[in-house]
Structures are given as C-alpha cells and as structure tokens.
Amino acid sequence: MARIAVYITGSIAAYKAVEVVRALQHRGHDVRVIETKSAQQLVGAATLASLTKHPVMTDLWQPSRNGQVPHIELADWTQLAVVVPASADFIAKMANGLADDPASTTLLATAAPKMVFPAMNNHMLANPSTQRNLRQLVDDGVAVIEPAEGLLAEGYSGKGRLPEVPAVVEQIQEKAEQLLHHGELADTNFVITVGGTQEPLDPVRFIGNRSSGKMGVAIARAALSYGAKVTLIAGNVSVSLPKSVHCHLVRVQTTEEMARAVQNSFATADVLIMAAAVADFKPRHSASHKVKKQKGRQDYQFDLVPTEDILKMAGKMKKRQLVIGFAAETDDLLQNAQRKLEQKNADMIVANDVSKAGIGFASDDNQVTILQRDADPLNWPKQSKQAVANQLMALIINKIKEGW
Ligand code: CTP
Fold this sequence. Notes:
- By secondary structure, this protein is of the alpha/beta class.
- The chain folds into 2 domains: 178 residues, Rossmann fold (3-Layer(aba) Sandwich); 214 residues, 3-Layer(aba) Sandwich (Rossmann fold), CATH 3.40.50.10300.
- Helix content is 36%, strand content 24%.
- The protein has an 8-stranded mixed β-sheet with strand order 12-11-8-13-16-17-19-20, sandwiched between helices. A 5-stranded parallel β-sheet has the order 2-1-3-4-5, sandwiched between helices.
- The chain is globular, with a radius of gyration of 24 Å.
- The model has no long low-confidence stretch (mean pLDDT 94).
- The site of cytidine-5'-triphosphate has 14 residues, from α12 and β16.
C-alpha cells in the first residue's frame, strides 16, 4: 500500500480522476487529493473528500494536521505524486518550478517521484511550448505518460485524450509497486548498452543504424527505479538519457569504443544488458580526409571487416554475471534468437520482430519473447517499451533472488 497524492487539474478529463481515485483505493492505497481552482469547477471537492476520507487540498491556509504547515505536511506524506489529468497550464508551471497556487506549491515541495498524465486538446498538446515543457519534465525525471488518440471533448479526433481509467490505474499501480520494492536492486551493478554504434568511413560519414535507444533507456530507468547502480554505455540515441547520481554515463561512438567500455565495467557488474544495436562490420580503413567524388568514377567500394561481438566476448568472460542480449530479427525470430542464446553463451535473449509495424526501432511499443536457458520461451503482449522494461526488471529480480 502506498501513500498517493492525486493532483487533479483543469482538464475536462477531470471527471475520470474520480474513478482513478476510487480504483487506487480499491487496490489498498491511501489517497489524498489536491485540486486546482479549475478542477474544482469540474469535480466538487466534497465528492473527493468523502471518497478519500481526507480533506481535499484547495487552499494553502486551510486548517492543518498536527499544527504543521498544510502543504508541507501533504508533500512530506506523499510517496507518489500523480497529476491526472495534467492540463497544459499545470505542465507549464511544473516545467518552470512555479508555485502560485496550492497545487503547484505542494507539488514543488514534494520530493517523491512524480507521474504526469497530460490530457488536453490536440493542438494544445502539439504546441511547441507544451512539447518543450513535457521534454523538460522528462529531463527532470518526471514520468510523463503519453496521452491517447481518439475523440476529444471538442467533438473531433486527435491525440490528447486521457487513456482509459484501467490503463491509468495500471500505470500508477506499477509505479507504486516499484516504489514499495525500491531498494530490491540496491546492491546490484548493471551495465546497459543503448543506441546504435557508428563506424566512420571518413571524418563526415559513417555506417550506422536505426536504433533510437528507447528500449535500452527504458531498461536503464527501470533498473534505477529499483535502486540499482547503472553504467549506461550509450552510442547514438535520439531520446533523453536518465540523469541520476546512480547512473554513470559513458558516451561511445564505435563498436570498438563500446567493447572497451563494457570490458572496463564488466568485472564489477552483476548484470549486463546489451540493448545496443551494434554494427557487425566496419570499414577496414577510415579516411582521414573527406572522400571526394572523382571525375569519371561511377562506383565506390568500401572494404568491410567484422567488428568484435561484444555479447559473445561477455559470454566468454562471465563468471557470476547475468548476461542478457537482444535479437532484432525480421525472419525466423525464435530459431535465430535461440541460436544467439547458445552461440553467445548468454543467459537470456530478448527477441523482437523488427519487421512488424508499430513495434520496431523508434516506436514507443514493443512485443518481445524472452528466451532463457532451461525454461520455456515467455511471450509477452505488445505493450509500451517502458512496460516491457519493467517486466524484464521484475524477471531479473526474481532470477537474482533465486541465485540464478
Ligand atoms: N551484439 C554485440 N556485438 C556485435 C553485434 C551484436 O554485442 N558486434 C549484440 C547486440 O547488442 C544484441 C545481440 O548481440 O544484444 C544480437 O544482436 P543482433 O544484431 O540481433 O545479432 P547479430 O549477432 O549481429 O547477428 P545477425 O546480424 O546475424 O542477426
């Protein structure tokens, strides 16, 4: 059971927050509500107060518990703060650290993890300032949950809806469980590689790949949320990287640099997760000057040589480490993934079919099959990459407990 502060702000989806509050209570959580002025126009504080058996915070000067300053008492009580729904205005306040009403003041005073469920008109959501504010929240370590597409209150369709109540509750529940189990990986060192490697052809060109780093970064965030120490070895990524005192970031470009970084951190690692998309070949020579077009020359050939297989190297070096690889396949998913498990001496392979629409590189969702030694494959449903990462972390925690 967690102590959850639900912040309801001025979005028409506020009425759904009542059901969210109710469902969280059904799951055994202690819930207190904070409403902005506009939210009070949409849902009465009296309803929420009688459901939660706690006064709703609407006024900084309302009578306090045990003589404490009310917003500080509530901020300190909070184990998880959830803004649902989050209006564009409230998101802007959060992104800028404003504290000009009871809700923003209490949230600013809260040290607990924060989740934000934006819900607004699609044009408001797409506005560059809202997008900038949301990116700022992600950079500040706030979990921002993607709004859904569908019919908006305005009567037309677009992206900006609050996801359905069961989905909202599921996400909050997952976060609450992580918090309650925080510390389960406190003595565990993870080495996680993310993104794509780039092999230079000359000072301006390289051979690269489509990896965004989303899956690997989601895994790193999941490990950090359970209290693990993470060495994050990042190639080229298009997502923001976690900022945490427990996350040691090593930036690399080539496979060789990534291999060296893994080698340097592997001896003290408990778990290695090779989520990076690593180049299998690199140019034999990288020109020191830009390769120029030559008159009359129609074709160019590059001589490629194999790179080091980092996962295989780790599979050979491992002593007590749990070594996990990925298999991105377009054909014969299970056979290829099984072969990688054996040939690379990995303990687990996360296999995904990158030819399927909506679950490949750069997308927000993934559908994976987990292959392990001496266990049947686990087929997980299509879900967000963060949900895959959280489920993977729960599996790793179980394996650690069993002493793999
Ligand atoms: N990998 C690695 N070093 C390489 C190539 C791949 O460590 N030089 C790792 C990847 O990070 C991933 C796993 O091996 O965890 C499988 O990568 P994948 O690209 O799917 O397979 P390959 O081994 O490259 O085999 P193929 O290209 O034949 O599919």
